[in-house]
Amino acid sequence: MTIDPQVIHSEPHVALGSLLQRDVSVLIDRWQRRALEEQPQARRVHQDILMDRLTNFLWELGRSLAESQEPETSTHCTTALEHGEQRWQAGWSLPEVVRDYQILRLVLLEYLDEILDRPLTSREAMAIHLALDEAIAASVGMYVSQREEALLRMERERAEQEKKREETVVVALREADYRKNEFLAVLGHELRNSLAPILNAVEVLRLAGSNEGAIQQVRDLIERQARQMARLVDDLLDLTRITLGKVELRKECLDLATAIAQAVEASGPLIQVLNHRLSIHLPTEPLWLEADRTRLVQMITNLLNNAAKYTDPGGQIWLTGERIGQEAVIRVRDTGIGIPPEMLSRIFDIFTQVDRTSGRTQGGVGIGLTLVKKLVEMHGGSVEAHSGGPGQGSEFVVRLPALPVHSSSPPSGTAVLPKAASTRHVLIIEDNPDGRETMQALLKLWGHRVEAAEDGQGGVAMALASNPQVALIDLGLPRWDGYEVAKKLRASLGQNIYLVAMTGFGQAEDRRRTLEAGFDAHLVKPVDMDELARLLTDLPQATPEQET
Questions:
Q1: 298-335: per-residue pLDDT in tens?
Q2: Which of 55, 77, 377, 501 has a CA that sits 20 to 30 A from residue 171's CA?
């Protein structure tokens, strides 16, 4: 015979209800011990707050059994809802929640069978099962509801994050597209800047006839502009190769001073034409690094060019190299236009330039600093930019791993001679103060006796007075150019002085002209320090007159 649950609900079981309310603590203790035995992985969630809720649940369960109630008014179902919500919040799984009630059911039946002096009647057992089934349904329903709500919330959050991510990507793509378009515009401008004088030069050549002076001037102009275009293309190709991982560093042990000297020589013309003052501070002892010489010079040159381009004429640039702990630190600081705070985080991004509309740029499309960052990172270093804001100048700091300090000799395998096999008396004649000072400092570090003059007349006078073994002569000197200086020195000192031409031109015709003018060697700027070191080493010993 089927028994209607409504009938069971309508029947009070006062004795059972009173026992449950009286012995709540005993039942909880037995439930807890058994639950821990059967669900040890859920031990973390048997917290005091859950114990409190279970106390309320058992008390209300006893009340529901003791009183005649309709299912919808059963108070134990209300506490069961709280029980399910808290189990969700505490991290229980759904099987753990169901098993928790199953354990409680066994504990209740075993306890009542133990405490009563008679067996449970079938209607009493049905009442207990029915009440617990209602509690399980309410608790599991709340648990599932909480889970679904959490899943919906997570889905909404995921959708919002995805939307934000898509918006960020769209903004980034628009920014990249904008910068790409600006890059193409600037690239076209830079190419036209070089092509225009070349085209003009072609017209001059057509009209110049046999005017050798005009032809030579135009030839020099074409070569300068072609070199500028070549540098632009080289930077673009370098960046592409680095991005594709096709650049392999050719590392060697070298002194930071040699790289700085070559970089200053390469940047000298730009710094000089803008009338900037360059202050250079180098360590008194060699600072050895394991680096790709060409790429290290490229890094420093790009930073110097950047400082020169974005500093008003007549500005100040500081270049410092020093050892700090285990790092070689290179700083390039200027009194230029500065960097807005919002640009500092992306100043190294490709195609990024500051103040494009000012007309300051002397060539370049916004990839120089990007190249610096990538090359520095390939060497295991870092680079950062600092600025107080617009008009406050800027400073770029490069940090590279330095080799351990050596007391008396360079690391094995170094390609630069730190000390000459024998001391040479060298005269530098160079009108670029930065190139002159760095070359003088480097030669002194190598152990040579060095003098320097800033123009041809002063250089000739100094040579006649001190009788040096070697003269390093820049060809582009004011008033008396390098060719004139060579002729005068050769006429006065004969073969007792070794003349070395230093120039940015290195074609066969350029080398022929220097030899005809009386030079013994021809070095192309930026000077290869290995070649210069070998040249000085291979010279014959000094005469007594030259050693005095």
A1: 899 999 999 998 999 999 999 999 999 999 999 999 99
A2: 377
Report the candidate in 444, 384, 396, 402 with the shortest Cα–Cα distance to residue 420.
Answer: 444
Phi, psi angles (nearest 5°) of residue 312: -60, 150
pTM: 0.52
Q: Mutual orientation of helices 256-273 and 293-309 as an angle, nearest 10°?
A: 30
What's the 3-state SS for 335-358?
CCCCCCHHHHCCCCCCCCCCCHHH
Question: How many C-beta atoms lie closer than 10 Å to residue 430's C-beta?
Answer: 26
Q: How far apart are CA 6 and CA 134, in angstroms?
A: 13
Q: How many domains does the chain have?
A: 4
153: tokens are 């919330």
Do 317 and 396 contact (CB within 8 A), yes or no? Answer: no
Do 99 and 17 fall into the same domain? yes
Does residue 408 carry a pLDDT above 50? Answer: no
Boundaries of domain holding 504: 425-547
Residues 6 or more apart whose CB falls under 8 angstroms from that of 147 comprise: 88, 94
Say whether 402 sits in a helix, a strand or coil: strand
How many contiguous H segments (helices) and E segments (strands) does the chain have? 18, 12
Q: What is the pLDDT of residues 149-186, one digit of tens each?
A: 888 888 888 889 999 999 888 988 888 787 777 667 66
The tens digit of pLDDT for each residue in 241-287 reads: 777 777 788 899 999 998 998 888 888 878 888 899 999 998 888 89
Same domain, yes or no: 197 and 154: no
CA dihedral of residues 83, 88, 92, 96 (deg, nearest 10): 50
452 φ/ψ angles, rounded to the nearest 5 degrees = -145, 145
Q: How far apart are the C-alpha atoms of 164 and 158, rounded to whole Å?
A: 10
